[in-house]
Amino acid sequence: MSPFLLLVALSVVVSRCLSKTSDQYSRCAPLPFSCGDFSTNLSYPFSINGTQTGCSHPGFHLSCTIDNLTQLMIYNTSYSVKYVDYVNQIMTLADTAYMNKDHCPIPTSNTSLDFSLFDYTGTDRNVSYYYCSSQAVGVSSLYQLSCDASTGMYDYYFTVGDRVDESCTGLVYFVPIYASFTDRLNVTNARKALMSLKEALREGFDVNWKPGKGWCEGCVGSGGRCGYNSSRPDEPLCFHWDSKIHLSMKQDSE
User: Fold this and answer.
1) 171/131 Cα distance (integer angstroms)
2) 37, 49, 210, 235 from 61: Cα distances, Å
3) Burial of 123 by CB count in 10 Å (0-12 exposed, 13-18 middle, 19+ buried)?
4) Which residues, in sequence order, are bridge partners of residue 253?
5) Among candidate residues 239, 250, 253, the one with its CA nearest the CA of residue 55
6) φ and ψ at 44, to 5 degrees?
7) Residue numbers of the chain with a pLDDT score lower than 50
8) Cα Rg for the chain, rounded, in angstroms?
9) What one-character-per-residue DSSP string does 102-170 give?
10) Which of 128, 162, 180, 225 is the most buried (most CB within 10 A)?
11) Cβ-contact 72, 207 below 8 angstroms
12) Given this model, what pLDDT does residue 47 score?
């Protein structure tokens, strides 16, 4: 092949690569999302209706409920997304079941995260729930859930921390809250403790999301947009209008 024809062929290949990368870069532009008090431009790893293929990570689809709560489903449990911090990859979640102020905060299971996608943060602290036959004598930080309408012999009690109280032989559930609520729950007045518990559960807790950790911030900083390849999900993928920068980002991550 003559040098001229070779140059033409290479130009066509580069042009196609540039066009493909540019198209994906455009398709992955942040999308405006507004639901109740939550309003932001969403991008990787999140998706909403209208997000294009390859622009988000599975497990991060957000929707707006009829109560104007931004919903994220984790293991069939509905969480309200209250805050998103892209720089530190932190989001604030609250179990939707606790968002109703009149709801008695009795759990039906432990709070469970998909630890392939999320981690707790240092701002979180557990509330321990006990199912007891009677309140433990001498345990001042163990409070009965007075809103429980149960007519059986057993009642729910709660306290702050992960310890299991030996005077309660029933099921134990752990639910995360902000550590800043600890002092407000460790009070002598059971009614105040219950009101603080309801408030703490509505405020939620923080989690770090894992997808994109270590590379997505650099991609965005270079002017690119993070993406996802379902056939190679662990490979960093950065779309840019310039294919050379796109290729460079992939090489730097290897």
Assistant:
1) 6
2) 18, 8, 15, 20
3) middle
4) none
5) 239
6) -45, 135
7) 2-20, 137-138, 151, 153, 244-254
8) 24
9) TS----SS-----TTTEEE-TTEEEEEEEEESSPPTT-TT-EE-TT----SS-EEEEEESSPPPTT--S
10) 225
11) no
12) 97
Structure confidence at residue 89 (pLDDT) = 96
156 token code pair: 């729910």
Segment 237-250, tens digit of pLDDT: 999 886 544 444 44
Express each pLDDT in 172-201 by its tens digit: 788 999 998 888 887 777 778 888 889 999
Chain centre to alpha carbon of residue 63: 13
Secondary structure (DSSP) of 203-235: H-EEEEE-TTTTTHHHHHHTT-EE---TTSTTS
Q: Measured at the alpha carbon of residue 83, what is the angle toward residues 121 and 206, in degrees to the nearest 5?
A: 15
Q: What is the pTM of this model?
A: 0.81
- Residues in the chain, total: 254
Matching residue, tokens 């707790």: 120
Counts of helices then strands in the chain (DSSP H, E): 5, 14
